[in-house]
Amino acid sequence: MPIPTDYERVAGRSVAPVAYRRRVDTLPTGPIESDPIDYYRGRDFADLRALLDEALDGVELGAYDRRIVDWAKQTWDQPTMVTIASLIQRARALR
Known about the structure:
Number of helices: 3
Strand content: 5-15%
Low-confidence stretches: 1-7, 17-24
Mean pLDDT: 79
Oligomer: single chain
Strand order of the largest sheet: 1-2
Structural class: mainly alpha
Order of helices and strands: EEHHH
Shape: globular
């Protein structure tokens, strides 16, 4: 049974749908030394899932990539999502 996906195919590439492409300006921009609770406290869990979509915006994804991202969004807790999304954005900023 296929895993449901939040991604769609656009011009031969997998990208997050427009609804998920909202700017998330509340991610840590530097090293995280402890639970980043201030970045997810009071936020809807769907908004936290969108953090990964935002961090991966513009990155071409294969079918397995999409599957893993969807799995992560369904299983990771709030501090993990914030931390991984922050790591991805910080790594991309170095390029």
